[in-house]
Each structure stands twice: as structure tokens, then as C-alpha cells.
Write a structure and sequence with these properties.
Structural class: alpha/beta
Distance between the termini: 10 Å
Number of helices: 2
Order of helices and strands: EHEEEEEH
Number of strands: 6
Shape: globular
Largest sheet: 4 strands, parallel
Strand order of the largest sheet: 2-1-4-6
Helix content: 10-25%
Length: 84
């Protein structure tokens, strides 16, 4: 499984987005994570927004599903969304 990671601009983060991604990556060592590339298709893309505005640009990204992480609580239940 290949998962892309797309960050918002970070203008008003309510939590440490990098720490959240580190927690996700370490929880799923069997999954390949990488920063999103426009020309690559992903099984899922994690849109890492620093707040509830969810302003990260995600149009045109190639994926089967987009999963929005707007707070640390959004990490809970991620395995269900990833269907692991």
C-alpha cells in the first residue's frame, strides 16, 4: 500500500502536524508513506491540516481516497479508514 502525505501551509496549526505524521508512520511500518507527488497515484492520501479550516489544496491529486487529519483525534480509527 502506498500513501501520500499532503500538508497545509501551516499558517495556524493547533497541533504539531509533523509529530502526528511521525506517530502515523511508526504505527504502520508495513505501509509506504511519501510526500505527495502530482503525477503519482496513491491508495490513500492523508491531507494534514493544522486546523479545522481544512484549507490544504488537494484538487487534482490522484488517489482512491483522501483522508483529512485536522487534529490529533483524527488519528484514532485511522486503520478503519485505511481498511487495514
Amino acid at each position: 500500500m502506498k500513501i501520500g502525505i499532503k500538508y497545509c501551509g501551516g499558517c495556524n496549526p493547533n497541533y504539531n502536524r509533523s509529530e502526528a505524521v511521525s506517530r502515523i508512520v511508526s504505527s504502520y511500518p508495513e505501509i509506504e508513506f511519501e510526500p505527495v507527488k502530482q503525477d503519482t497515484h496513491y491508495d490513500h492520501i492523508l491531507i494534514i491540516n493544522g486546523c479545522s479550516r481544512s484549507c490544504a489544496d488537494h484538487e487534482g491529486l490522484k488517489t482512491n481516497s483522501k483522508i483529512f487529519i485536522n487534529s490529533l483525534k483524527d488519528i484514532d480509527g485511522l486503520s478503519e479508514k485505511l481498511k487495514i
